[in-house]
């Protein structure tokens, strides 16, 4: 067992569990705590440090969530990150900002985590029901219970605040606001986004690295102009099918790389002749996987192994993490300019707020300025100004805190309703996001699950709808809860219980 000799300081400005977390994380990253070494039990470490056991549990829970340690049933906690992956010069951060401190404060009260042949993408399998874009049944009839993984709850949106900011901006009558803006987006907004990324995602980047655009689709099309056409790119299977189709439209040659419980397998990626890999490390869609730090470092090592390789990080809903601190973005660990980061405000604020952003490595900035700077920004300057003030003045943070509580209550309601399902289904993806994944333990097919749900007026989403290649795995369905009330969640799950169990 690894002996720890840490000291805690009540006047350091950091809460005690965060000091424990920081100490153990540093021990692993610097190679003093080796992979496979056992950590002290929560009880013994709490007694040694003279703190509440829950304080140590909070720290272990965050380390577990980020993949620094693993839990072995009835044996305890063990270090699981390979230290050699961290032995690179400098501190985490975007190149050009070495040594900049990373701030990532706690989010609420953290708790212990639990143990962790080709077809057209998105086309329904034989026997599946057919749906239109709006989620209606074939024939146009509405669903009584629609468990969409893409819908969000607009009931908590601060319409009054948004109207007030809009009115004040238009009342000012600043003529500059109606002039042509910068191609990358207004500097003030990009500066605000850079500060937000630093505080919430552990990312260190300058405003000059950020490009603002109307939705991820536009940013991916811009990225195609930067990286070039006919490129070979790797994606996970299953994956976000919309992005897959966009890459197809670029004439990209797309190869799929196997996943395991930690996300895209870096060893399989290394076997493919590709220039880029598209990943969702903070919350993989649709599997709900949170990629641990060890796997992230393996991907970064692959990208650094050859000139011209890049990782495209889609961080689409990282704001909605319900337990522990936010897990830093993959970009936060990038020291060699290999990560292209894409984020959006559509999930966190509203779908109509078509504002997304891309953080380019400095190695690609010159290429962007040379080949793409003549493209105008696709977001109006008025909308940029509104969003900038919404974030800068603290309204966005308050809105996120409110929505986390709302979504967490909905998730807890769904998990409670799923208790009777545990004998027949494995439930995963509980830590982050707006959907859960149910994987059948028996021999029932996905088509049968969907058909039974349809007869009850319930719409759920089969995992195969997100498959790029066929899989012979167990039947699995996505249960989204963001756009439903707790009453609707309970009513829909009651119907599914009748026909699935």
What's the topology here?
Elements: H1 16-29, H2 42-49, H3 53-66, E1 69-72, E2 76-79, E3 145-146, H4 159-172, H5 187-201, E4 210-213, H6 216-227, E5 232-236, H7 241-249, E6 253-257, E7 259-260, E8 263-264, H8 266-269, E9 276-279, H9 293-304, E10 310-314, E11 339-344, E12 356-359, H10 362-371, H11 381-392, H12 395-417, E13 425-428, E14 435-440, H13 446-455, E15 458-459, E16 461-462, E17 476-480, H14 486-500
Parallel strand pairs: 3-15, 5-6, 5-9, 9-10, 10-11
Antiparallel strand pairs: 1-2, 4-12, 7-8, 11-12, 13-14, 14-17, 16-17
Helix pairs in contact: 1-3, 2-3, 4-11, 5-11, 12-14
Brief description of this entry?
The chain is α/β, with parallel strands linked by helices and 501 residues long.
Description:
It is a single chain. With 501 residues, the protein is an alpha/beta fold. It folds into 3 domains: 16-86, Winged helix-like DNA-binding domain superfamily/Winged helix DNA-binding domain (Arc Repressor Mutant, subunit A, Orthogonal Bundle), CATH 1.10.10; 145-151 and 398-500, Aspartate Aminotransferase, domain 1 (Alpha-Beta Complex); 174-393, 3-Layer(aba) Sandwich (Aspartate Aminotransferase, domain 2), CATH 3.40.640.10. Helices cover 34% and strands 13% of the residues. It has 14 helices and 17 strands. The chain has helices spanning 16-29, 42-49, 53-66, 159-172, 187-201, 216-227, 241-249, 266-269, 293-304, 362-371, 381-392, 395-417, 446-455, 486-500; strands at 69-72, 76-79, 145-146, 210-213, 232-236, 253-257, 259-260, 263-264, 276-279, 310-314, 339-344, 356-359, 425-428, 435-440, 458-459, 461-462, 476-480. The strands form 5 sheets. Strands 4-12-11-10-9-5-6 form a 7-stranded mixed sheet, sandwiched between helices. A 4-stranded antiparallel sheet has the order 13-14-17-16, covered by helices on one side. β9 (276-279), α9 (293-304) and β10 (310-314) form a beta-alpha-beta unit.
């Amino acid at each position: 067992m690894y002996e720890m000799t840490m000291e805690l300081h009540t006047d350091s400005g950091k809460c005690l569990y965060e000091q424990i977390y920081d100490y153990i994380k540093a021990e692993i990253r610097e190679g003093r705590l080796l992979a496979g070494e056992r950590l002290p039990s929560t009880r013994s470490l709490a007694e040694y440090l003279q703190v509440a056991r829950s304080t140590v549990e909070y720290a272990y829970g965050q380390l577990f969530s980020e993949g620094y340690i693993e839990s072995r049933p009835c044996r305890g906690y063990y270090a699981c990150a390979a230290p050699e992956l961290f032995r690179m010069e400098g501190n985490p951060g975007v190149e050009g900002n070495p040594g900049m401190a990373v701030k990532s404060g706690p989010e609420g009260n953290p708790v212990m985590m639990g143990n962790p042949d080709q077809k057209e993408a998105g086309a329904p399998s034989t026997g599946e029901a057919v749906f239109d874009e709006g989620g209606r049944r074939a024939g146009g009839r509405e669903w009584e219970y629609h468990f969409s993984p893409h819908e969000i709850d607009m009931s908590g949106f601060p319409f009054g605040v948004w109207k007030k900011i809009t009115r004040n901006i238009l009342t000012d009558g600043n003529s500059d606001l109606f002039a042509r803006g910068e191609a990358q987006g207004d500097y003030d907004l990009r500066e605000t986004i850079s500060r937000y990324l630093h505080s919430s995602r552990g990312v260190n980047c300058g405003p000059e690295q950020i490009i603002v655009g109307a939705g991820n689709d536009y940013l991916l099309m811009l990225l195609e102009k930067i990286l070039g056409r006919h490129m070979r790119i790797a994606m996970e299977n299953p994956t976000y099918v919309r992005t897959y189709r966009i890459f197809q439209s670029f004439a990209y040659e797309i190869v799929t790389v196997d996943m395991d419980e930690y996300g895209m397998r870096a060893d399989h990626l290394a076997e493919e002749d590709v220039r880029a890999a598209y990943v969702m490390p903070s919350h993989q869609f649709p599997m709900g996987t949170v990629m641990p730090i060890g796997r992230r470092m393996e991907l970064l090592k692959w990208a650094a192994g050859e000139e011209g390789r890049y990782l495209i990080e889609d961080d689409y809903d990282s704001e909605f993490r319900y337990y522990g601190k936010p897990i830093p973005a993959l970009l936060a660990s990038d020291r060699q300019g290999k990560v292209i980061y894409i984020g959006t405000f559509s999930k966190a604020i509203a779908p109509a707020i078509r504002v997304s952003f891309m953080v380019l490595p400095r190695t690609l900035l010159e290429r962007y300025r040379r080949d793409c700077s003549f493209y105008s920004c696709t977001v109006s300057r008025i909308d940029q100004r509104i969003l900038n003030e919404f974030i800068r003045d603290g309204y966005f943070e308050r809105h996120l805190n409110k929505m986390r509580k709302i979504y967490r209550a909905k998730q807890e309601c769904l998990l409670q309703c799923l208790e009777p399902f545990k004998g027949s289904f494995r439930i995963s993806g509980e830590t982050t996001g707006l959907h859960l994944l149910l994987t059948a333990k028996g021999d029932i097919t996905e088509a049968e699950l969907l058909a039974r749900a349809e007869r009850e007026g319930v719409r759920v989403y089969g995992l195969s709808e997100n498959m790029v290649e066929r899989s012979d795995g167990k039947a699995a369905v996505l249960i989204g809860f963001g756009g439903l009330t707790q009453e609707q969640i309970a009513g829909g799950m009651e119907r599914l219980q009748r026909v699935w169990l």
